[in-house]
Amino acid sequence: MSNQDQIDYWNGETGDKWVTHADALDRMLAPFAKAVIKDSGLGRFDHVIDIGCGSGALSRMAYEQGSKVTGVDISEPMLGLARSHAIAQDMDIPFEQADASTFHSDQKFQHAISRFGVMFFNDPKAAFAQIRSNIVDGGKITFSCWHTAQKNEWAMTPLQIAMPFLKEPPTPPEPRAPGPFAFAETDYIIEILKSAGWKGIEIGVLNPFIVLPGNNPRESALFMLNMGPMGRILKEQAIDIGPIADALTDHFEQIKNEEGLVSLQSTAWLVSAEG
Is the dihedral of CA 172, 178, 181, 183 positive or negative? Predict the structure, then answer.
């Protein structure tokens, strides 16, 4: 997708879906947000920009550290929810609808943070250079990004279960193309950051089991088939979701935990660099 395609995508049906399921998604992704906050070492009075802030979960966590936070995202539906949450919790967090690859701030930030919000740029080298221009010298960036799809059961399991029901196999995305798994290769991450003027690059691995949204295997199956890549594939091929949901529910029933919830392996990179 181009940047404009991404803007249209996240301000349409997908953005609305994320708003509907924001609390469940934030709970599922909480281990990664906590890792970003911990690794960033944010302090009181740090001025922080949250890239691809979505509904604002990471922004609120940074605010709770005593930092002054600005959230930036292209999705107005998600930003509306972020503003509502901040107001409800009496948090002074400005949320701006902007493309981080072109966003310019008159006031420099000490830190840029992101929870899975940096993999969608059409020109990532230019985007990270622009982000760097908004950071003070000696400032820092900390973000999480997904490893390969093959290293993430939450992405692969629904696809594997759905394959016998599809009219044709989905076309794999081009390597490094904008999307959830664009930054799967660490060499590519390092190349992007170095070209954009970042140094002191460190990359660690996060691999928690994440609890899928839903109070039972059936709800989790329906959620995973309606959100993200699978939802788009099924819609494009006009596939009846019912038989796939039944098959995925059966699989989830076999692996549910004692509470009846479904958790799947995930793998992501935790990246930090200095300006």
Answer: positive
Residue that is written with structure tokens 């016998």 in the block: 164
CATH superfamily, domain at 3-148+174-209+267-274: Vaccinia Virus protein VP39 (3.40.50.150)
pLDDT in tens, the chain (275 residues): 556 777 787 787 777 888 889 999 999 999 999 999 999 999 888 999 999 999 999 999 999 999 999 999 999 999 999 999 999 999 999 999 999 999 999 889 999 999 999 999 999 999 999 999 999 999 999 999 999 999 999 999 999 999 999 999 998 888 899 999 999 999 999 999 999 999 999 999 999 999 999 999 999 999 999 886 788 899 899 999 999 999 999 999 999 999 999 999 999 999 999 99
> Can you give the residue ranges of every domain in the chain?
3-148+174-209+267-274
